[in-house]
Design goal:
318 residues, globular, mainly alpha
């Protein structure tokens, strides 16, 4: 862990000093160098993720695809979503809007005596074990992500935003970040607030987000892979998550055209197993939303059209 952390830190410093810092000085943002250094970390994580997608997951898709990709224009839009999120453009917008609000809020709470706590400090000795601490926080955040995901499918207003993610008929490794931006804001606000409240260190938070995003990209891959009877119960596979995207199965209650569904887990299937939403059937079905397939509901082709139609669905106009 220390070796990997040092390698990452060295690469972050080099990228910051070679590219980001000169650019910030040129733009008159020298007062934000600390924030720029942190942003460089997110940029580096994104670059690593994109390299893994292109070098490893991409060849897997070509080796054993579930289906032929016939709508490459739709996939290119998903690639745009991925670049926006993985290279930090979305996070940059949040930095100049919501991040300052939350920093001031938690700062005021600490001044008032309502300090946050370190969750890993509840277990003696855990704080001295970086890997154990990281695993503990990863479990907590994964459980949180499970319930956020269930909420996106359970509440009608939230589903009107989240349904954009499910409207992709050609699910690939690029589809993870195909979300309505308002949906992303809501989810990120919840995650950041909880992370602050339980005391996740910034480096741990970056590591958890990076691991989660990379795993989600693989889960969305157009690849006919599952992990076997035992492996499927230890980590979420592309087969497991594709069923969640399957028309009439993954995001509807059994035998009904109502919200609900199966396989909401993000990293671990344990939460689905614990709360009765798991489906381990070995099947690879077509993806999409029922009203899109059966009634021709329009979810948009281009980025801005998809965002606009999402807002219209939210207010009942589409």
């Amino acid at each position: 862990m220390d070796f990997l952390a040092n390698v990452f830190s060295d690469a972050q410093s080099w990228l910051f000093e070679s590219l980001v810092q000169p650019l910030m000085f040129a733009l008159g943002m020298g007062n934000l160098l600390v924030d720029g250094y942190n942003a460089t970390g997110w940029l580096l994580v994104g670059l690593i993720q994109l390299a893994v997608l292109v070098a490893i997951i991409g060849p897997l898709q070509r080796w054993r695809p579930v289906e032929a990709v016939t709508d490459r224009a739709a996939v290119r839009v998903d690639m745009l979503y991925t670049v926006i999120h993985r290279l930090g453009l979305f996070r940059l917008v949040l930095f100049f809007s919501l991040d300052t609000v939350f920093d001031n809020l938690f700062g005021a709470l600490r001044v008032a005596g309502f300090d946050t706590f370190q969750l890993d400090a509840l277990w003696p000795g855990v704080t001295d074990q970086a890997l154990v601490s990281l695993v503990l926080y990863l479990l907590v955040m994964d459980a949180l992500n499970y319930w956020i995901h269930r909420g996106q499918h359970q509440f009608e207003w939230w589903w009107q935003l989240h349904s954009l993610h499910h409207a992709q008929r050609q699910v690939t490794m690029w589809s993870d970040n195909r979300n309505h931006l308002l949906d992303d804001v809501i989810r990120d606000v919840i995650v950041v607030v909880v992370a602050q409240l339980i005391g996740i260190a910034p480096s741990q938070f970056v590591a958890i987000v990076a691991l989660t995003q990379l795993s989600e990209s693989f889960q969305h891959a157009n690849v006919r892979i599952w992990f076997g009877q035992i492996g499927e119960r230890l980590w979420i596979s592309p087969r497991f998550h594709r069923l969640h995207h399957s028309v009439g199965i993954g995001h509807e209650s059994a035998g009904k055209h109502t919200l609900g569904g199966h396989n909401f887990g993000v990293l671990l299937p344990w939460w689905d197993m614990l709360f009765g939403t798991v489906n381990f059937e070995l099947r690879f079905d077509p993806t999409g939303v029922r009203d899109q397939v059966e009634q021709g509901r329009d979810y948009g082709r281009g980025f801005w059209t998809q965002q606009w139609l999402g807002l219209k669905r939210l207010v009942g106009r589409a």
